[in-house]
Specification:
The chain has 375 residues and is α/β, with parallel strands linked by helices. It has an eight-stranded mixed sheet with strand order 1-8-7-4-9-14-11-15, sandwiched between helices. The radius of gyration is 22 Å and the shape is elongated. About 10% of the residues have low confidence.
Amino acid sequence: MEKDEPDGPNGKRSVKPTVQEKIKPAKTWRDPCSRVHFLVNLGAMKALIPVAGAGIRLRPHTYTQPKPLIPVAGKPIIAYLVDQLVAAGITDFVFVIGYLGEKMRLYLEQTYPDIKKIFVTQTTRLGSAHAIQIARDAIEQDDELIIVFGDTIIDLDMTAFLECPGSCLAVKKVKDPREVGVVEVDTVGKAVRLIEKPNIPKSNLALVGMYKIREVGQLLQAVDTLIETNCQTHGEFQLTDALMNMLRSGIPFHTIEVRNWFDCGKKEILLETNAMMLKRPGAATSSPEGLDNTILIPPVYIGENCSISHSIIGPNVSIGANTRIYTSMIRESIVGNFSSLEEVVLHHSIIGNDSAIHGPRQSLNTGDNTEIDFG
């Protein structure tokens, strides 16, 4: 296990006063079914974010960058999550990095200099519960913990989730629960059973990858038990199984249903998420520069220093910075940074960074540093 903290100019740990100033005071939470008020200190919570996965389902894009850094509506997936938590008052983070971890570390250090960060390296990826175990030193003294998987975008009432008394699971109804962790609940919404990717699901409530844990010590014990007994599900040590062990021991879990959940693990879902996020206020580019004889069909995001001429762009297109597009038509697509597209008609495509494409109408799914010439 490797654990690092950012150092100050003289090799000493730097404590930025701007972080402390952002910590919110304690708030009260009212259970709608109870008259009891619970005291919650949001600023004291720590967020644990596993981002060590290889993102196999999004290859070839993840050959050269971690899945959480893939852009959606001009912003990396991980940024939506961190921004959401910081806005809610959380300023203390633990990131479990692994595959292409230095790229992840560099992005987070440069983009979020004012949050407190600890990086823990998961050299062997044995599952979500294993990621929590190797972060033990960074979280075992905490009273409360937020765990969020760093490759999803979740739209929920964050205040209600963080102020919920006790431990809480974010959930969403899905059409096919066989590919996700599932929770069965009672009549008041408390969990009665958790199971990872059931063959015959008895519930369509999916665990979306966001958890608030008040019993951090019991969670670590449950994780240790899984690993010591080699209890694996689908070849990995699953957080879902650890939480089920906690449930069996009598620890209750509330559930809160989220508004939207985008598990950005496949090309189709990534493009759907891009389209949804572009429709949000402020996401699309309103007055882009560098356009010449070009029509934009909103919503469209265009990064800095782009040159686009004699083209039709949109709808639902995100274009990375420093990209050149000439005599092309692009819709429902994501184009990376420093790319060059000429005389192409693209739809439902993902074009990686530093790509050069010249040619006729196609539907493409290319990775970084790709060059295609259909001429």
